[in-house]
Amino acid sequence: MLARTGHLFDEATRVTAGDSRWQGQTSEDYWAFVGPFGGATAATILRALMEHPERAGTPLAMTVNYCAPIAPGDFDLDVRLVKANRSSQHWCVELTQGGGEVATLATAVFAERRPSWTHQPAPFPQGLPFEQLRPYPRIKATWANQYDFRFVEGTPDFSGTVPQTEPASAYSKLWIGDRVPRKIDMLSLMSMSDAFFGRVFHATRAMVPFGTVSLTTYFHADADDLAAEDTTRVLAVADAKIFHKSYGDQNGELWSPNGRLLATTTQIAYFKA
Amino acid sequence: MLARTGHLFDEATRVTAGDSRWQGQTSEDYWAFVGPFGGATAATILRALMEHPERAGTPLAMTVNYCAPIAPGDFDLDVRLVKANRSSQHWCVELTQGGGEVATLATAVFAERRPSWTHQPAPFPQGLPFEQLRPYPRIKATWANQYDFRFVEGTPDFSGTVPQTEPASAYSKLWIGDRVPRKIDMLSLMSMSDAFFGRVFHATRAMVPFGTVSLTTYFHADADDLAAEDTTRVLAVADAKIFHKSYGDQNGELWSPNGRLLATTTQIAYFKA
User: Fold this and answer.
1) Tens digits of per-residue pLDDT, B81-102?
2) B263 near B235, Cβ under 8 Å?
3) I want to staple B245 with a disulfide (CB 3.0 to 4.6 A). Which of A113, A169, B61, B124 is the partner?
4) Where, if anywhere, are coiled coils annotated (chains A, B) (predicted)?
5) Taking 80 as the threshold, does the pLDDT of residue A3 lie above it?
6) What's chain A's Rg over C-alpha atoms?
7) pLDDT at A1
8) Which pLDDT belongs to residue B142?
9) What confidence tier does B163 reach under pLDDT thresholds 50, 70, 90?
10) Residues of B in Cβ contact (< 8 Å) with A163
11) Do residues A49 and A91 lie in contact, with contact meaning Cβ atoms separated by under 8 Å?
């Protein structure tokens, strides 16, 4: 299925139909310093699952392990429905290039979201509205310029040197929208869950070498919920708990402007500092 | 490699050597209401990786997707090293029984943990010491009786009915040790990261039908760090952010008594309420 909106994000995450093997390609528009933006890779994999003829239900959980760099160009997605029952599906996807080794390994769970007791104990992160904040300036990584980041707290200051005597806060609160507005869907939630700047950049105030190793996102809204929110941006928070022996963590939340928790995410990332 | 300590946990998570296919078996000592305790399953898979002749480095991240019930008895573990480089390994493991479909699908990342800038922004959860607290009483699920749970906050009260007008707190702080003390290692951290009672039990105060669907744990200590801590218990906290349309999340931390964050964990679980 080709993109229907003409949005760069849909172009960047486009896949061509297959049965067990799908095809995609990296996008110059969503490029990080040494490879494609991990969020775009994750969203492309999720798109292949969403568009798969055997898909049933809505995304519940997705884990993406970034095993090796992805070179610019085409890639293959080996998509496998590992197990299905009446209410859920378990998928495994391997991304390869040129018949070579696996560059990205992902698992995903889809589920029928049936009505239930509902409770949202997490507090909505209050803050200045989107319209009252300035967009974060453009940077050299093209992917970041596809997003409109508006920081409420924890505006990046990458002027530091490592090691510092006093680490800075790793916490950020910010609005994230596509720079060209695009309605929030499962694909953009998946991508935005990897769209936080590295926590180690915030904590050290320096752009040290960095790479996400494993990313897990849980979806707390289904398609009906997202349709009801009808928004083009999320209020997002991210923080870290520890940086130790070359790896640090991140945990984050993506909220609708109305105060619904749409997704939670966690990742562990390599850094050199 | 056979268990050397004679501890029930080592017996329950025992695997027999293979190359790509390993064998394990469920344990009556770590049984939940409708299948094996998910933490024991996760630890058994991790043990197969730890003991694998090609394993290099220390566990960094593990995701376990519980696809289908596991019947009492033997199971096979198809263990595959998906990608390796000088500093990390990516594994994929499928648990099957009797040549049937996949019951559990796991991915794991191992890494060389090199010295780096270190910072632990997460606050150590203060509380009464282990010795001053009473063990939680035994319950019908055998797995829980293998652990010595001592609640600092959020002692379970499962006397409620669903739906309630006022949900209770989903937060817990507790010490977790093996009931027969056993030194904390990667395997027990993996298992303990699934040893919290379901958050929905706390929030609804009722033992509703419940099952973990996907569990992700990050390890923030390597073997040297654990050896230095030299402890048989962790101080653990867990909380939930949302329960919605039959699924709820959990996030948790496992701390050494000295104040080192050993592991962080998150999961999404099915519930009926």
Assistant:
1) 999 999 999 999 999 999 899 9
2) no
3) A113
4) none
5) no
6) 18
7) 43
8) 94
9) low
10) 117
11) yes
Quick one: three-class SS letters along A48-111? HHHCCCCCCCEEEEEEEEECCCCCCCEEEEEEEEEEECCCEEEEEEEEECCCCCEEEEEEEEEE
- Superfamily of domain covering A8-112+134-271: Acyl-CoA thioesterase, double hotdog domain (2.40.160.210)
Q: Which amino acid is at A190?
A: M
User: Residue A166: is it exposed, middle or buried by C-beta count within 10 angstroms (0-12/13-18/19+)?
Assistant: exposed
Mean pLDDT of chain B: 94
ipTM of the complex: 0.96
pLDDT value at position A2?
Answer: 45
Q: Quick one: how far is CA A21 from the chain centroid?
A: 23
Judged by a CB distance cut-off of 8 A, whether residue A216 touches chain B is yes
* Number of helices followed by number of strands (H, E) in chain A: 6, 12
What six digits make up the tokens of B181?
């003390």
On the CB side of A269, CA atoms within 13 Å amount to 25
pLDDT for residue A203:
95
Phi-psi bin for B251: left (phi > 0), alpha (psi -120 to 50), beta?
Answer: beta
User: Is B183 in CB contact (< 8 Å) with chain A?
Assistant: no
Q: Got the DSSP string for A196-229? A: SPPHHHHHHTS---EEEEEEEEEE---HHHHHHH
Contact at CB, A241 and B247, closer than 8 angstroms: no
The residue extents of the domains of chain B are 8-112+134-271
